[in-house]
Design brief:
- The chain is an alpha/beta fold.
- Helices cover about 50% and strands about 10% of the residues.
- It has ten helices and six strands.
- It has a four-stranded mixed beta sheet, with helices on one face. A two-stranded antiparallel ribbon has the order 3-4.
- Helix 5 crosses helix 8 and helix 6 packs antiparallel against helix 7.
- Bound molecules: zinc ion.
Length: about 290
C-alpha cells in the first residue's frame, strides 16, 4: 500500500504502555458492557468466553502507571495506522457529504495488553473492536503479528482492511444501522441473533472494500498484491476457518462474522462498486 506520504490523522489516541486504572468497572453496567464488547465489532469470531476469561484474569485492575516512556519518534506502525485512519476520514467525509450528512470521525485507541472502553474492559485476546458507546476503535498492534503468524495474513493492506472494517462499524453506528440491529437482536433467538451479526459483519467488510475503492480512486493507494492481501485476510478470519482451527469442526449456527467465502465476497463487492448501496447485506438474498 502506498501510504508514506499520506496525511496522518489526529484521531489516534496512544495508550500503549498504560495499564488500566484501579477501580475500572469490569464490564461497565453489569454484564451489559461486556455483552456489548462481545456482540459489537470484534474483528474475529472469537468465542465470547475468551473475552470473559481475559477479563477475569485481569482482576483486580492494577494501578494506572505509564511504562516505557513515550513511543519512539520513528514509530512506523503507529504512523501507518494514522495514515489509514486519515484515508478513512477523507473517504467517509466525502461520502457523507454527498448524502447531505456530516461524518463524525471516530477516535482510534492504540493499546497494549488491556484497555478500558465505554463497552467494558477488554484484553488483547478479543482482537480489534469498535465500541459504539464512545465511538472509538480499539487496536492492539500485536494483533497484526497474530494476523501474520496465526492466520497467515500478511501485508500492510491486510492491516488496512482490519482498520477499515472497524471504521465500517462506526459508519453503521452513524447511519443508525447498529441500533436497529441491536434492537432486533434483543428480541430473537440466539441463532437468529448470530445470523444478524453475520449480516452486520459482512456489511462492515463491504464498507471496508468500498473505502479501498474510493481511497484508491482519490489517491492511488493500492499497489500490486494489495487486493490479494486484503482478500486473503478476509478469508483467513472467516468463522469456518477459525472454528476448524480452534475446535476442529464447523458449526454454521454459531457463525457471527460469516464464512471465509462470504467475507471475501462482500469485501470484493465493496471493492468493485465502491458505494454503500452495494453493501445492503440485510436485504441480500445471498450472503
Ligand atoms: Zn466486525
Amino acid at each position: 500500500m502506498r501510504w508514506r506520504d499520506g496525511r496522518q490523522s489526529d484521531n489516534v489516541e496512544d495508550r500503549r504502555g498504560m495499564s488500566i486504572s484501579r477501580g475500572a468497572k469490569i464490564g461497565g453496567v453489569g454484564g451489559l458492557g461486556l455483552l456489548a464488547v462481545v456482540v459489537i465489532g470484534m474483528f474475529l469470531g472469537i468465542d465470547p468466553t475468551v473475552l470473559l476469561q481475559g477479563v477475569q484474569e485481569m482482576q483486580p485492575p492494577s494501578v494506572s502507571v505509564q511504562r516505557g516512556g513515550p513511543p519512539a519518534a520513528n514509530d512506523d506502525q503507529r504512523n501507518f495506522v494514522a495514515v489509514v485512519l486519515a484515508e478513512t476520514e477523507d473517504v467517509w467525509n466525502e461520502t457523507f457529504r454527498r448524502m447531505g450528512r456530516t461524518y463524525q470521525a471516530p477516535k482510534l485507541v492504540l493499546f497494549s495488553g488491556a484497555v478500558e472502553s465505554a463497552c467494558g474492559v477488554a484484553g488483547s485476546a478479543v482482537g480489534p473492536f469498535y465500541c459504539p458507546s464512545d465511538q472509538k476503535v480499539y487496536l492492539d498492534l500485536k494483533f497484526f503479528e497474530d494476523l501474520r503468524t496465526r492466520f497467515g495474513a500478511s501485508g500492510d493492506f491486510a492491516q488496512a482492511y482490519v482498520i477499515a472494517h472497524e471504521v465500517g462499524h462506526h459508519v453503521q453506528t452513524l447511519l443508525g444501522i447498529s441500533k436497529k440491529v441491536n434492537e432486533l437482536q434483543s428480541r430473537v433467538s440466539p441463532s437468529e441473533r448470530n445470523r444478524l451479526s453475520v449480516r452486520m459483519e459482512l456489511q462492515a467488510d463491504c464498507f471496508a472494500g468500498a473505502w479501498a475503492h474510493q481511497a484508491d480512486r482519490n489517491r492511488h493507494i493500492l499497489e500490486a498484491g494489495d487486493i490479494e492481501e486484503g482478500l486473503n485476510a478476509a478469508s483467513a478470519i472467516g468463522d469456518d476457518r477459525i472454528q476448524r482451527k480452534t475446535q476442529g469442526y464447523v458449526v454454521p449456527d454459531a457463525f457471527t462474522h460469516g464464512s471465509a467465502a462470504q467475507r471475501v465476497r462482500w469485501f470484493k463487492l465493496g471493492l468493485e462498486f465502491g458505494n454503500l448501496q452495494t453493501c445492503d447485506t440485510f436485504n441480500a438474498d445471498r450472503l
